[in-house]
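hiii so um. not sure if this is the right channel but i have a protein structure encoded as tokens and i wanna go backwards to a sequence. like what aa goes where. can anyone help
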């Protein structure tokens, strides 16, 4: 049986990160997706393109995704034939993360709507278009999922993980002293 793992990296990462998992994933062909853009509607096209090629060749497809790569995977592949997803320090609720970042930057929805984009001191740009896109495109994730959650994750709260686990076919392991 031909099996593949599609790897979707996090922000600032690359498809070459897949090499660190090869020894642990014997029997799988490893396929990394490289992207430099973080707008969901752009990355979505790249992920779909790779998935469609892999789907034609492999009987079982798994997803390995890190951080925002997990969110991109859930958004793009939620209706795909994925055997299992493996997430590392995943972004599980993008709307909540955006709202948290708005709070950190002391930006209201009204101000963000008016200004459209606001750069922050923590090197992220808040975007009204992105927030609206996330709200208009909810994720329905029914794929069995294993999560490796960093104990000191500053982007996804333990409560968000608990809520995700409760509402999905998912399990998690906490990496002690791990950070996002």
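sure thing!! here u go:
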């Amino acid at each position: 049986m031909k099996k593949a793992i599609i790897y979707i990296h996090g922000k600032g990462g690359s498809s070459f990160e897949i090499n660190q998992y090869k020894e642990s994933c014997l029997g799988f062909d490893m396929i990394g997706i490289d992207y430099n853009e973080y707008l969901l509607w752009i990355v979505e096209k790249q992920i779909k393109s790779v998935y469609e090629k892999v789907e034609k060749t492999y009987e079982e497809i798994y997803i390995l995704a890190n951080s925002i790569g997990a969110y991109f995977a859930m958004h793009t592949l939620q209706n795909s034939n994925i055997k299992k997803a493996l997430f590392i320090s995943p972004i599980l609720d993008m709307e909540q993360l955006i709202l948290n970042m708005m709070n950190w930057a002391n930006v209201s929805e009204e101000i963000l709507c008016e200004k459209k984009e606001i750069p922050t001191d923590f090197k992220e740009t808040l975007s009204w278009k992105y927030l609206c896109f996330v709200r208009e495109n909810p994720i329905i994730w029914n794929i069995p999922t294993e999560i490796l959650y960093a104990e000191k994750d500053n982007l996804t709260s333990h409560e968000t993980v608990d809520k995700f686990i409760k509402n999905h076919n998912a399990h998690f392991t906490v990496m002690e002293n791990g950070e996002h």
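oh and The mean pLDDT is 92.
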